[in-house]
Amino acid sequence: MPRVLVDLLSYTGTKGGMEVYARELYARLGALAPDWEFIGFFSREGFALDRSWFPGRTIDSGISGENRVAWARGELFGVTRAARQEDADLVHSPATLGPWRTPMPLVVTMHDMLYWSHPEFMTTPLYTEPVKLMERIVARSARRIITDSPGSASEIIKYLKTDPARIDVVPLAGGHPEGVDRSLAGSEGPMVLAMGNRRPHKNWASLVRAVALLPAERRPRVVITGGRGDDPLAPLVTELGVSDWVDLRGWVDDDDVAHLYSTATALAIPSLAEGFSLPALEAMSAGVPVLLSDIDVHRYVGGDAARFFTARDDAALAEAIDEVVGDSALQARMTADGYAQERKFTWDRTARETLDVFTRAIAGA
């Protein structure tokens, strides 16, 4: 029975997509590989949360995943100690960073290279160089590196000088939000939905400026969820005089998400860079047409189902919004294409391909 120590020190309930990945992956690995033993090495905060999704024994490391110094020390050295104590055959670090060295094979999932490709977007510049150093360390230590898309694989090779033979592209999948009723689409008027945090690379300001470019009579309502505290987009909304059209919301619960997906005309994501795009897949699975910035990972995820626009071109985004919002036949085609595209990405596929990577890493030891 292979024994895998899973490094969940960064799991605190606040990390968004990387935590979705860990939950969805391990919920399925437990069913897929009942003869494997998985041991979750959790942060103090993560251990206090619901852990019913994890398919094995869980350990409270006592290490805070929110204290950057304690967390970094735990990643570099604490994970290795725990793996030795548990006599693990393999260590998996599913959140980009991991231990300095392990006596057993290490597999790390590196979701993106944003600290390298777009350091100007990092909200905590003080940590940029330390994070880059930790990424170099774990990339050298890992027997195999899993990443989410071919674009991310290319950047790992470029920035970390990693042998391509050690990299496996294993795509993620979208969620399937419950309670969505697309018969309500447009029932509250034309509405473009946008969901995500306010990190600079998300480029939400472009969406606000694009809406302001449209004539008032053709301007849809825009709902941007995911803000925390004082929303940095609020001054721009006021400056451009679009407060009547742009609704800035904080984090929304499942019922709100279902209502937004039910009534939205389209979802827009103007990101300048991403490792993957879970929101795009989730929207397509809900039957919502998607408008995506024309970057490599969006082409990979959106395929022929999405409408693409140049990321830094506000006028191009405004044109895409106007085209889709004003054409119900186009919306119907995009919805059908979105269902077909989303079905290519499943968490079962993610789990199967990840287990294959684990097997090869152990065999190669």
What does this structure look like?
- Helix 10 (278-285) packs across helix 13 (328-342).
- Helix content is 42%, strand content 16%.
- The strands form two sheets. It has a seven-stranded parallel β-sheet with strand order 3-2-1-4-5-6-7, sandwiched between helices. Strands 10-9-8-11-12-13 form a six-stranded parallel β-sheet, with helices on both faces.
- The chain is globular and about 65 Å long.
- By secondary structure, the protein is of the alpha/beta class.
- The chain is built from 14 helices and 13 strands.
- It has helices spanning 17-32, 44-47, 68-85, 114-117, 128-141, 150-160, 204-213, 234-240, 254-263, 278-285, 296-302, 314-325, 328-342, 347-363, and strands at 3-8, 37-42, 57-60, 90-93, 106-109, 144-147, 167-169, 191-195, 221-227, 246-250, 266-269, 290-293, 307-309.
- It has two domains: 3-173 and 346-363, Glycogen Phosphorylase B (Rossmann fold, 3-Layer(aba) Sandwich); 182-342, Rossmann fold, CATH 3.40.50.2000.
Structure summary:
Helices cover 42% and strands 16% of the residues.
Integer count of domains: 2
- DSSP helix fraction: 40-55%
Low-confidence stretches: none
- What is the alpha-carbon Rg in Å? 21 Å
Per the CATH scheme, the topology name of the largest domain is Rossmann fold
* Average pLDDT for all residues: 95
CATH architecture descriptor name of the largest domain: 3-Layer(aba) Sandwich
Sequence of secondary-structure elements: EHEHEHEEHHEHEEHEHEHEHEHEHHH
Strand arrangement, major sheet: 3-2-1-4-5-6-7
Structural class, from helix and strand content? alpha/beta
* Chain oligomer state: single chain
CATH class of the largest domain equals Alpha Beta
- Count the DSSP helices: 14
Give the name of the CATH superfamily of the largest domain.
Glycogen Phosphorylase B
**Main sheet: strands, sense, barrel:** 7 strands, parallel
Percentage beta strand: 15-25%
The general outline is globular
